[in-house]
Amino acid sequence: MRRRRLLRIFAVFVGAWILLCCANLFLFLSPPAPDTMTPYQPLDDVELQQQRHKTASPHSGSTLSPGDELSAGQSGWFHKILRYVRGEEKIPSPYITKPMEFPPKSSLRNYLFGSVSKKTIFVFSRPPWMNVQAEDDFRACAVKTCKLTSDYFALYKSAAVVVDVSHVPRNQYRPSFGKRPDQVWVALSQEAPTHCCHSYSFPGWAGVFNFTMSYRLDSDIFFPVGMLIRKELPPRKNYVAIAARKTKMAAWFVSNCRTQSKRELYVKELQKHIDVDVFGQCGPYNCSKAESERCRELLHTDYRFYLAFENSFCLDYVTEKFFDTYNNTDVIPVVRGHADYDRYFPPGTFINTADFSSPADLATHLKALASDAYRYAAILERKDRYETTYTLDQALCKLCEIVHSPELNSQDHHHTDIAEWFESDVCFDPEDV
Ligand SMILES: *[C@@H]1O[C@H](CO)[C@@H](O)[C@H](O)[C@H]1NC(C)=O
Ligand SMILES: *[C@@H]1O[C@H](CO)[C@@H](O)[C@H](O)[C@H]1NC(C)=O
Ligand SMILES: *[C@@H]1O[C@H](CO)[C@@H](O)[C@H](O)[C@H]1NC(C)=O
């Protein structure tokens, strides 16, 4: 009797569950919103590695880890399934990540774990943007037991030594300290080899580095200038009205007037067809550091396009010029560089000069967009679903994992020629000017 009642209840549950599922499926299968992103081609690691002279690395597979899991914001299984069914879930781009969650600084945690021995990461020739004061930097990481320092007394016992190889003083042929055998050294650089100081080619640096940490996708620790995060909720704005209010065509903020990428020639050519207002050293408009907020505001309100042209055509070299336009600025970036933009960044959120046969051809396209508020607005709207995030924390988390990795000392992973890794065969002459 009782058993039968139980069975009946169970049957009702199962029935209800199946019904719910059907209803959900029906909802899911409704035509995807027109704005749905087309998924990226999955990464072909082999191809990537062949393309970039890859040193065999136990951590190479994980360089792409930030993009492993891309979510469209809302968490919870319902939204996950919804996004999955709509094909939005996985866009394997190493540049798209999730916000890091910093747990509150808890005195209880400090009390309990403060004395747990942490591995020290020493930063040599510390770049000004790298805050090594923050003892708590690692609290958002999966492996938290690291600390950052640039105190020379901590050097010898450090598990890892990070050297910003682009900014080592010229006279520093080799740091005046030795390398402990079980210490790993990490060569960090965010500069393109074309305008970098080449300190890493000083003979004293040969063979000492175990890992690379840079914007290159084939770095041991991927450390791009920026990454994108899909916003939790897409903003609600009248993008058509924004488009209609724009009065100016294109802006370019620039201080370096003769570059490896010959972008100045490209812009000159472009200017024959459309207006490009040049701000900074190389043009008539001013935009000092102090006014940078005002200039950003101009992009946001007046300009339709921003020329995010890189100064160097080097592998994966993409800078804040590009990433900054994603951070709540209503302007469409026009990119020119040697990163694989079309593969890694959300399609339909930027314009790539590489997709046009000539500056004239690009100008025609920009003019067409400028006169079509709806098409223009659609790009803005798609772009506005993302924002930019800093990447240092993630890179340091990765390093903390590496120094804790149990296999670490059973492998000999080092770069015999770091200069060659950074420089050889990575920069190319532009072919479009
Ligand atoms: C740009 O700034 C300089 C010095 O700050 C000033 O002399 C010059 O007139 C400014 N040019 C324009 C176009 O505002
Ligand atoms: C992007 O904008 C948000 C909100 O305005 C800000 O908190 C964040 O620091 C910005 N990110 C970058 C990389 O500038
Ligand atoms: C780091 O590089 C050195 C060579 O400078 C090498 O002897 C050592 O085994 C490497 N360590 C690891 C963990 O790969």
Q: Please, what is the CATH homologous superfamily of one domain?
A: Glycosyl transferase family 10, C-terminal domain
Kindly report the average pLDDT value.
81
Strand order of the largest sheet: 3-2-4-5-6-7
Distance between the termini: 86 Å
CATH architecture term of one domain: 3-Layer(aba) Sandwich
Number of strands: 14
Approximate strand percentage: 5-15%
The helix-and-strand class reads: alpha/beta
**C-alpha geometry:** flat
Contiguous uncertain segments of 5+ residues: 24-75
SS element count, helices: 13
Secondary-structure element pattern, one letter each: HHHEHEEEEEEEHEHEHEHEHEHHEHH
Relative helix content: 25-40%
The CATH topology of one domain comes to: Rossmann fold
Q: How would a textbook summarize the main sheet?
A: 6 strands, parallel
- Please write the CATH class name of one domain: Alpha Beta
Give Rg in angstroms: 25 Å
Bound molecules: 2-acetamido-2-deoxy-beta-D-glucopyranose
Keywords: Glycoprotein, Glycosyltransferase, Golgi apparatus, Membrane, Signal-anchor, Transferase, Transmembrane, Transmembrane helix
Subcellular location: Golgi apparatus membrane; Golgi apparatus, Golgi stack membrane
EC number: 2.4.1.-
Main location: Golgi
For this entry, give a set of tags.
single chain, 433 residues, binds 2-acetamido-2-deoxy-beta-D-glucopyranose, Rossmann fold, alpha/beta, six-stranded parallel sheet
